[in-house]
Amino acid sequence: MSPGSHLLFSWLTAAEIIKTRRERVLISISGVAPDIDGLGLIVDKITGSTNLYFQYHHYVGHSIFSALFISTLATLFAKSQKIVVFLLSFFVVHVHIFCDLIGSKGPDGYQWPIYYLHPLNSKYELTWAGQWELNAWQNKVIMLFLLLGCVYYAVTKKITFLEVFSSKLNSEIFKMYTKYFAKRT
Q1: Are residues 48 and 111 in contact, defined by beta-carbon separation less than 8 angstroms?
Q2: What is the pTM of this model?
């Protein structure tokens, strides 16, 4: 799945259970954090001579140890509901790993294995023969349902996933809605 899908899923997971923006943001970031090991792609593009993306993607951020690290870090930054933050962060990291396992095959047919026990055992890898491509219809349908879930929360709770980026951005959405649409209905 794409980082955007991971973000929306993680935010939706936290939206009902977590009452404060700070903790929802921490859980949302936790759900995207495993893809930190994909930043090698930027270095590869800049240098043109490295292969960091293929060396480290699905190694560093997609293991049980990274799940524990990310969850612990989120808990340290949390001000409330620390146990819930840890558990939800651990959960969304594992959903991220599972979703990458089932739906992140490259357009060339390469299956991205998950090195779940890295760094203790870098030879053990998780793969699934039915893995669909990153741009497959299944991922598009999942993204559609995630977006519908976000619309539901925007309508019923007056919060959006945009709060991950800025609380002001989140509130501006509702101001624009009130200004341009609410008066017409």
Answers
A1: no
A2: 0.90
Residue 154 belongs to domain spanning? 3-184
Domain count of the fold of the chain:
1
Q: Extract the tokens encoding 88.
A: 């939800």
Residue with tokens 């612990």: 72
**137-157 and 3-17 helices, crossing angle to 10°:** 30
Give the per-residue SS3 of 52-99: HHHHHCCCCCCCHHHHHHHHHHHHHHCCCCHHHHHHHHHHHHHHHHHH
Q: Say how many residues make up the chain.
A: 185
What's the rounded Cα separation, in Å, for the pair 167 and 17? 18
3-state secondary structure of 129: coil
pLDDT tens sequence across 95-106:
999 999 999 888
Read off the DSSP letter of residue 158: S
| Per-residue pLDDT tens over the stretch 88-135 | 999 999 999 999 999 988 888 888 889 999 999 988 999 999 999 999
CA 81 to chain centre: 20
Q: Do 142 and 135 meet the contact criterion of CB atoms below 8 Å apart? A: no
